[in-house]
Write a structure and sequence with these properties.
This protein is an alpha/beta fold. It has six helices and five strands, in the order H-E-H-E-H-E-H-H-E-H-E. The strands form two sheets. It has a three-stranded parallel beta sheet. A two-stranded parallel sheet has the order 4-5. Helix 6 links the parallel strand 4 and strand 5. Helix 4 packs across helix 5. It is globular, with a radius of gyration of 18 Å.
C-alpha cells in the first residue's frame, strides 16, 4: 500500500481499482484508492466476495461499479453477440493480440492449473487439445 501511494505522489492513491480477485487484495486496493477514485468489481477469484464499507465510499467520494460480462448474454444478447463477433474478427486479423504467458499440451493440464493456482501467470494460460 505504501509503495503504491508513494508512486502516486501528491495524488494520494490510484484513480481506478480494477479487481477480478477480491479477498485481501481488494481490501488493500480500496485503501490505495485516491479521493474520487472508481472501484471496478470484476469478480472474486479468491473466493471472498469484495466488501466495501459505506463510510469509505462516503469519506473518499468513491464510485463502485460491478461488472459481470455474463449478464450481458441474458440482458443484451444481440449487442453482446455482435461485440464478440467483432472481437474475434479483430483477433483473426491480428489487430489485437492477447498476452499469452504459457501454452501446455493437453497431457500437461495439471501443470497449467498449478501455474494459475500458484499465481505464476501474467497473461493467458492455454491448454492445447491438438
Amino acid at each position: 500500500e505504501k509503495k503504491v501511494k508513494d508512486l502516486c505522489g501528491s495524488r494520494g492513491g490510484v484513480d481506478v481499482v480494477y479487481d477480478p480477485v477480491g479477498g485481501d487484495l481488494w481490501d488493500a486496493s480500496v485503501r490505495c484508492a485516491a479521493f474520487g477514485a472508481r472501484l471496478l468489481i470484476i469478480g472474486f477469484a479468491s473466493g471472498k466476495v469484495p466488501q466495501i464499507p459505506a463510510n469509505i465510499l462516503l469519506s473518499k467520494n468513491l464510485d463502485a461499479l460491478g461488472f459481470y460480462v455474463g449478464a450481458y448474454f441474458t440482458e443484451r444478447l444481440e449487442e453482446t453477440t455482435e461485440c464478440f463477433r467483432e472481437l474475434m474478427e479483430m483477433l483473426k486479423e491480428k489487430k489485437i493480440k492477447p498476452l499469452i504467458h504459457s501454452e501446455f499440451p493437453l497431457e500437461k493440464t495439471g501443470d497449467a492449473i498449478a501455474m494459475l493456482r500458484d499465481r505464476k501467470a501474467s497473461g493467458k494460460v492455454i491448454v492445447s487439445v491438438q
